[in-house]
Design goal:
Helix content: 25-40%
Distance between the termini: 43 Å
Radius of gyration: 19 Å
Number of strands: 15
Number of domains: 2
Bound molecules: 2,5-anhydro-1,6-di-O-phosphono-D-mannitol, magnesium ion
Strand order of the largest sheet: 4-3-5-6-7-8-9-10
């Protein structure tokens, strides 16, 4: 932890001073997300104590059972953001359509897309889960935001981040000027800067993937994982397997220690499982700003143009040299 007490607010103010033309609208938006994260974190931390666990009885757009905390987190994100005048439209992994700003409130220049509670299958077992978000500038011409605003390439993000509700709650984000982590101090109710300018090692020793899908993987993916298990001192193999099954938690560990996370396409789901807009793009933005790389096996994630807000993509993300090597195997060049 730094010897200066740096709250998210102070960090944003200090960063903003470098941009005299900034209006403060964008900074306030990051602060709004931190506020929503505190409220979601409070409920996540009492899961089990009160009746917040289990299912609501309905299904989301992906046909998955909705858990009560999913629904709660989704509603908090919306309610923390709808009235601020900073956003023109939102999109959530939990909602089928884009989310307009209510008519009674004004619209701003920014677009927010989010996965309110990722890894929710882990909720009932007290395993880390997270909230993931991206911020874009409005590109559509009308007064209100449209689908076009939500379907921008990841390279157009102006900020992205996640909150991991784990042993402690942490918010990690980048506004394009380094990746910074803030740990929540419940005694003062603030996120305090604990990890400044995070850089991911160029190569790691950890791989994270659901190997239960092995039979469905392509030959290239199978060969790559077999390669990581081979013994070779010079290239630090075998790698260690670490898979939590919560993307935010798996990503967070690999960001700090180095490593590679893979959710590839396979025979049954050629586009994999994870969503381009809500999961792959924000984490790809972060990993690149930390010196790493993210690919769908062939193309840089941030260069993919989403055609649908719920589109899926294979995701290979982490230490740059590891991801590049995985691409070679997946493309069957090795
Ligand atoms: P969710 O958004 O419905 O929670 O699903 C995404 C999660 C990720 O957190 C995780 O990486 C992945 O699903 C795990 O999938 P699997 O159980 O197939 O390994
Ligand atoms: Mg998710």
């Amino acid at each position: 932890m730094s010897d200066r007490l740096v709250t998210i607010e102070r960090h944003i103010m200090e960063t903003q001073r470098q941009y005299p033309e900034a209006t403060g609208e964008f900074s306030a938006l990051v602060y709004d997300i931190a506020f929503a994260a505190k409220v979601i974190g409070r409920e996540v931390n009492k899961a089990g104590l009160v009746d917040v666990l289990g299912y609501t009885g309905s299904q989301n757009v992906h046909g998955e059972e909705v858990r009560k905390l999913d629904e709660f987190a989704d509603s908090i994100m919306f309610r923390a953001m709808d009235h601020t005048g900073r956003l023109c439209v939102m999109a959530s992994e939990e909602q089928e359509d884009i989310i307009p700003i209510p008519e009674k409130y004004g619209c701003g220049h920014y677009v927010l897309t989010y996965d309110p509670l990722d890894g929710s299958s882990n909720i009932d077992a007290n395993v880390s889960i997270g909230t993931i978000f991206s911020i874009y500038r409005k590109v559509s011409s009308g007064e209100r935001g449209t689908l076009e605003d939500c379907l921008q390439k990841g390279s157009a993000q102006v900020a992205a981040g996640y909150v991991v509700y784990g042993a402690s709650t942490m918010m990690v984000f980048s506004t394009g000027n380094g990746v910074h982590g803030f740990t929540y101090d419940p005694s003062v109710g603030e996120f305090l800067l604990s990890h400044s300018h995070i850089q991911i090692p160029q190569r790691g020793r950890i791989y994270s993937t659901n190997e239960g899908n092995y039979q469905r993987w392509s030959e290239g993916t199978r060969k790559y994982i077999a390669y990581l298990k081979e013994s070779d001192k010079a290239s630090n193999r075998p790698y260690s397997a670490r898979y939590i099954g919560s993307l935010v938690a798996d990503f967070h560990r690999n960001l700090l220690y180095g490593g590679i996370f893979l959710y590839p396409g396979d025979k049954e789901s050629p586009r994999g499982k994870l969503r381009l807009v809500y999961e792959a793009n924000p984490l790809a933005f972060l990993v690149e700003h930390a010196g790493g790389y993210a690919s769908d096996g062939n193309t840089r994630i941030l260069d993919l143009k989403p055609r649908d807000i719920h589109e899926r993509t294979p995701l290979i993300i982490g230490s740059r040299e590891d991801v590049r090597e995985a691409e070679e195997f997946i493309q069957e060049k090795r």
